[in-house]
Amino acid sequence: MQKISVAIIGWGNVGRGCKRAIAENPDLYLAGVVRRPISLKQQDPSLADTKVVADIRELGKVDVALLSLPSREVPERIKDYHALGICTVDSFDEHERIPALKKELDINAKAKRAVSIFATGWDPGTDSGVRAIMKIASFTGHTTTTFGGEKGGRSMGHTVAVKAIEGVKDAVALTLANGRGKQKRRVYVELLPGANPEAVAKAIQSDAYFRNEPTEVLFVKKIDKYNTLHHEGDIERTGMQVNQRYTLEGNNPELTANVMVSCVRACIAARSRGEYGTYTFIERPLIDYLAGATLDEKLEGY
Amino acid sequence: MQKISVAIIGWGNVGRGCKRAIAENPDLYLAGVVRRPISLKQQDPSLADTKVVADIRELGKVDVALLSLPSREVPERIKDYHALGICTVDSFDEHERIPALKKELDINAKAKRAVSIFATGWDPGTDSGVRAIMKIASFTGHTTTTFGGEKGGRSMGHTVAVKAIEGVKDAVALTLANGRGKQKRRVYVELLPGANPEAVAKAIQSDAYFRNEPTEVLFVKKIDKYNTLHHEGDIERTGMQVNQRYTLEGNNPELTANVMVSCVRACIAARSRGEYGTYTFIERPLIDYLAGATLDEKLEGY
Question: What would be the CATH architecture of the domain defined by A4-125+253-299?
């Protein structure tokens, strides 16, 4: 069986997780990492065995590009890879922008005969799949999704958004449960010398990622002891005939990477049937995400 | 929008649940119930507003037949409906027979330009979807499914199997959790006059539904007070990066009916694309099971 050739775009926590996840799946192989500056190679010993390039075309044939980039850069970068006929998987996470962007990127993928699984990871992504299943099993019910539990968990999208704000040296943005279906945010910020704390707090609280939820900004000397990769989620659906609950807890970027790497297979399955386009997680059959050479292998344990 | 025409085949607890579920979904309508003897109509006031026939052809155009029949009758009956070009949904539940039967029924459906969602309901069915999602999110983990909890729940397939045994007047078969991933069975049996309890107990314990699990058979004067429609399930996956858990509890036949009725849409979506065949739940995109006239409506809350 020919292995699927995968490139990782970006080298943050999710990119690192993707490298580990690819190594755990014998049907995939890592063609290389795309990142500027490529001098990074000298800095990170975990890339010693990996090609690091500035342009994906230097890697030869790549089937799927895993975009482990800040969410806001994702839509334009997907188009760059479509232009090269390369499939993409990303973890874009601004829920309300998904339907419109999906439509636009779908036209783009079809024109370039590429396939994208868009806005995947665990939420949106597998959690969207769980919410769909809950609705299939109980269509008159009510679903709530709550993140972070009592101790809070790292929101990657929010953390990246805060780090991009002027005056911020380092940060971690936590999501905490705030009653069924509601969240609140706590942001630990290490400032650059001379930065204005009030201006930074205001910039965070008015950012689209934060402005709809209670957001507490705490300034600390060093981020280190507040840092965490843990997150957790809780989806509940109560209905007339049945009640359902799904919980997960674990390492947020590693979990995101697992889902993204499973999506590589769904890209190739769709491409092999000529079903070009940009799809969200729930638009492709679950079986296409699973490992296994034959249908019977994939159905094992059905 | 033209409504999807649905017939219910059989009139047990699941068939009744399907009637209620169809009424809750404005994109579907009930063409009628197929059952012999049709004199049933006089016996069941809940069928007063419903056509009851002995042969589905008496109902005019039917898009999808919901087979609410004993599991063991299902495979042959699917073929009968394929022969008429009618799509089917069923809740066949013998897990180990699914891959081979699916293959056979898939050839049959394609030849007759029909679509079937085979072996659906909650387990196999939506639970299979949850197990697939858990694997997508954590491919190096270990999954266990446990049914019935401490108080036990009604297994419909097992109950039907016991009721078919000679000497049994009425019965209810409960599934109880027996440690992570293991089950035990408790069967309450009301005997026909003159029946031999030892022979009945032996017939139950050697039936394919029971022979692989500890099965206790208890004889009672009247089933009534031991009867229940409740069931519950618990799927856990522990992995290297993430732990997941999904639980459900509720009315077993109503839950099965909900899932079966959601599968009607997936049949029609596949048929409209010319994707004839017999599919398990995880082989069709989740979005095809959901209500909503447009993709954006279906993606709502993604």
Answer: 3-Layer(aba) Sandwich (3.40)
